[in-house]
Amino acid sequence: MKVVVVESPAKAKTINKYLGSDFQVLASFGHIRDLPPKDGSVRPDEGFAMDWETDPKSERHIKDIAAAVKGAEGLYLATDPDREGEAISWHVRSVLESRKALKGVEVKRVVFHEITKTAVLDAMRHPRDIDQPLVDAYLARRALDYLVGFTLSPVLWRKLPGSRSAGRVQSVALRLICERESEIEAFRTQEYWTIAAEFKTPKGAVLGAALTHLDGRKLDKFDLPDEAAAREAEKKAAAAAYSVAKVERKRARRNPYPPFTTSTLQQEASRKLYFGAQRTMQLAQRLYEGVDIGGETVGLITYMRTDGVQMAAEAIARAREVIGDEFGKAYVPEAPRLYKTKAKNAQEAHEAIRPTDLARKPDDVARYLDKDQLRLYELIWKRTLASQMASAELDQVAVDIASADRQITFRATGSVVVFDGFMKVYQEDRDDAEGEDAEKLLPDVAEKDDMVRKGLKADQHFTQPPPRFSEASLVKRMEELGIGRPSTYASILTVLQDRNYVRLDSRRFIPEDRGRLVTAFLESFFGRYVEYNFTAELENQLDDISGGRIDWKAVLEQFWKAFSGSVDETRDLRVTQVLDALDQLLGPHFFPDDGSGHDPRVCPTCSAGRLSLKLGKFGAFIGCSAYPECRFTRPLTSGESAGDDEVREGPKELGSDPASGLPVSLRKGPYGYYVQLGDESTLKAEPAPEPAPPAKGKKPAKPKAPKAPKPKRVSLFRGLEAADVTLDVACRLLALPREVGPHPETGLMIKAGVGKFGPYLMYDGGYKSLAKGDDVLTIGMNRAVELLAQPKGGKGAAGPLKTLGEHDGKPVTLHEGKYGPYASSNGVHATLPKDSSLETITLDEAVALIKAKAARGPAKPARKTAAKAAPAKKAPAKKAPAKPKAKPKKAAE
Questions:
Q1: Fewer CB atoms inside 10 Å of the end CB: C or N, the chain?
Q2: How does pLDDT run across 620-634, given as a tens digit for each residue?
Q3: Quick one: CATH architecture of 262-390?
């Protein structure tokens, strides 16, 4: 028996069918061990020695593999064909060796780029040893990420409270997002105008054109800066007569796009299918590992982590065959298309992502896939097929329409698809543009044809800031800069969101203030390590390690020497120095200039203090320099009212209470947000009561200290957000409980308030919680009576459903309780018989039930626990006779 180890059970199931009964295929379920998440797991002073810890969840899988290997003919490690796959194989072998499970067992490594029977059997016929340079590259990357994370993160926590950890590549990606946001904030909109006209041709057709030349000069984008200039140009254009000055026609070719790499697949899946990078990779993994098709598990695509764009010769030949069969020979180019990647730091060890068999069309596998799997497979199939199709051919036409003196020119452009070629199957979307040029068929005109102007229109435009990064455009930018690798893009984007450094809004990344602070901190004190070129160069060095061109420990040694020195330089940094640097760097963001001439840093409360960045135990906030005299604070994000992360340090002053004149503030305590009326500095201490005169012969009591004042506080109830608390809302909360009005039947007062369990109504000694959507501050009489009439679990808590009359001067009422309907009067509650109902029972019947219940006496109290039960009274025990006193012993001499 031979043992084969792969990563996933799905992959194991597929491969086991291909290999037959002579093989046992087991799954490691991913990595079986990793560096423990504690300081000291990588030790630079000991030659970068690493401590590995086996995942407890993996222990069972390791035992299964070890048991299977015992006495086996050989062990084949068939994990994925990349660094991570090589590392998993290395870990499996190392763990088995440490447990002495490989004695006499030959270990071989096999790789395949697609899970098909042919590819797997061919790989098994050509095994190799574990590629140590690939493992070294993995070790170097893992050590680098560990050293940066566990060295830099504590610095971040100490100097910037409230921040999360900092990652080597994630920090650079975060910088990209934050820099783009700064560009957007610094952008100043500029106005410009354009002039468009419609002309009638000699044959009666209408042609639309845009003004390009005025007064014999070509117009630049901002040459018509305002409406006055546009109207003047419009006036000149309206006075002229026009004819066709020039017609340009040329044939253009548009070539297809290369097949997918990991990054381009993530980009197109984001644009076309709205899949996140992580979702795309999950679906691709499933298609790669195999799908049950007609009783046979088949891998539908090649390995999905790659930056190569080349395809195997057999796959190209198959693509050309399918193109000819499906679309005809005209769509098959004369020679196969060969692609070479342009991505920086690309590793072309693997093929592009393509279907394992292009003859397997999406319609053929639709019934075996779920909706998202099918959509992704169809995208890959179309892109691969289109990459080997003939170029599209277009006729592009440009018509210049000029005035008689040639001082004014309008231009019309259009294109016509003569031969669609690859466009019949696939067109790539644009992420930050409106898409491909619009195909517009222009009417047939010739030079010197007279053109009759039919309409003239001036349009106002404004320049737009650069767009925020989408997942697609961020992955594309990272790839261009050489940051990260295909296998890391999805995890990088996920980590940034999990740490609340960025958020996705309308499929665009927006940096949170926490993320901007971290980026500013790193740029200020660790600038070299968030530089794009430095990170890309480090990726180059990792590639050199995987190619066996450089020693991995030499790379780590060079990095660690400079990095640890930079960390040491920050040890003596005072928090005030950090704050000053961040305040200066982020000032334009937190204190934007609105153009009014008002200083945005002037404190709005005291007008004397200056606003700046502050740090509290919960993180950063904006505060006044006049603290503690002025307690103004606001969140980092400019212009927003109090929210979940706002009241970081000190209260948020809302204003003064109109009735008392005391300050009203919003605060955050250990149990949530609350509003407070006044504070210790504004409340007078209550005088202590005069001590009673001392009894005769006793010393007078010491006078008590004045009682410390306690400001009134009211917690925010569930459903009321801190962001919605204004001065008016706070004052109404502080005035609770409020009177809603007298009950229309009983005349008893109904009140509304907020208690331990939220908003409630109080009536006749009972309480009724408000329903979702009811506002304790505004609920009226009709709704209150309706709520009180609703059944409630406890007796007496809700208002009566019906009043039958009086007995002994007390009302007799009917209620719905936890155990059914009951009658009540003067605190006595009697359950109605099963044959009675609230609709049929009379006053006499109810009174009889109540009298019978009163005669039986109160229900027995619940049995108390031994610890809480009061001790029963006992008869006083007889005193035992007193023992005679012992004679005093003589003192020892």
A1: C
A2: 778 888 887 887 877
A3: Orthogonal Bundle (1.10)
